[in-house]
């Protein structure tokens, strides 16, 4: 009897904790979504109102008056382009570090060490560099300059690549060399071995890296704020424009935030099934 | 025909895997490379496959160097000791992989997968991923993937090492039959003496990167080139007794340091024996070449039974004689217990003689 009581208490405690943690995580999102449907008069009142007449005016304001979808489009282009660059360059670099131990670990550490200084330390040099590149013909042609998407794509790639390489190296190291040897004996060339054996097995690592990079790009504010004005601004900068002289437009801010969270949610959920570790489980004698 | 010519392989600066070995793999032969762990067996296969490059030396195929030929162009099929299965695809797809890679058509692939999985008893596992198989099942998939396609040479790295005894016996027999059926050239590595003797047309005994001896199983068993081969081939291994030679007339007698006679051989049979002070001379016996002495046997050695092993069809006693240990087989019906003192009768003339671990004479029993 005593046993049962204590196990019941344990279960109750377990679920209690889960509800508490979920509350912390989910409630702000819930409140953001709720606020996005509230009329202006119902937002900043005390006590907070849970019952109200829902309205779409905040979305209307964000999308039509502030042209928020323009920022979404910018962000999507910049984030996806940067993520593709990071994943492709990162995979190839990490593979060579993992297989050929290029630089005997020192180059790998150096690459990671570039992550160790804060972003604010490099923002001024970046600003000057992109300003000057933007004035050249090549810079204009490639869209690399202040307030152009190229500047942000390059900055984000620079910033994410070290971490991506670091993360991917361990995934490639986990793939037994014998699998590659075996595939070559089976008649595949070096590049085909990468395509048919190595990359499929490293898929979970590549997925994780892609998700991290995309989320970083999507949420980044500092670089986007300093390096863009209007034409290449991203959602984080876009939301900032809702902080007006008349005050903060909380309703449209909530609507804009809801719109910008959605693509990330869909993406992460879609990638979730690739993010399981242990795809190489069973490849070699354990 | 494949040839390794003076092949030396070093990993890093200090680890030497192969020391200038020469090895010929004849067409359609079943060559077993037998040696202890770390002897360099896998390195030989890797060099034949083109996965590893010799540090120096040459690899020839039908007289032409193939050092520059990449693995995918060598037409070698290999089963890896640690399986190396593609864990992201099913067992069936694993088996079909080398066939797909070579552009075989669907119907032929299916038929081959069916046949090989049938032989190896993994037909019911084709839809599973390797991660869900037992070690023995994975090893059979690895073996299947190697033998499923026609290849110029099959390199099998301990392909039955992790199977249970019954399955090992069965697969071993299937493998030998299959190799003969296909007239295939096979290089097979193993750490089991039994496997080496049972399978090999020829066996190369490898130790610390050197080939100690290469020959037919009968050669290795009856005429080992040195004490290492003698003590490594055969189960139980050959036992040795340290002796001193006493020359007299047309015969040389070999006696223990205590003066007990062990063997006597004709002088011309031991022509290779040199009178070097301080050299170690040993007489070697197989466990079935000696027996427990009965009353009246002349010149026996006495010793204490240290261990008794029951193999079912025969028992083996390890008998300590001085600082040496001799294994003697005896019928299972005979009662003997550990600690008992027994006398051992030697065949006198049917012995193997070693000087400084090198074989001097293999005397056949006189008729």
Automatic annotation (TrEMBL), chain A:
It comes from the Bacteria. Keywords: Cell membrane, Membrane, Transmembrane, Transmembrane helix, Transport. The chain crosses the membrane at residues 12-34, 76-95, 107-130, 150-172, 197-227, 247-270. Its main location: membrane. PANTHER family: INNER MEMBRANE ABC TRANSPORTER PERMEASE PROTEIN YCJP, MALTOSE TRANSPORT SYSTEM PERMEASE-RELATED. Belongs to the binding-protein-dependent transport system permease family. This is Carbohydrate ABC transporter permease.
From TrEMBL, chain B:
GO terms for molecular function: ABC-type transporter activity; ATP binding; ATP hydrolysis activity. Its main location: membrane. It is a peripheral membrane protein. InterPro entries: AAA+_ATPase, ABC_transporter-like_ATP-bd, ABC_transporter-like_CS, ABC_transpr_MalK/UgpC-like, Mo/tungstate-bd_C_term_dom, NA-bd_OB-fold, P-loop_NTPase, Transp-assoc_OB_typ2. This is ABC transporter ATP-binding protein. Belongs to the ABC transporter superfamily. One of its GO terms (cellular component) is ATP-binding cassette (ABC) transporter complex, substrate-binding subunit-containing.
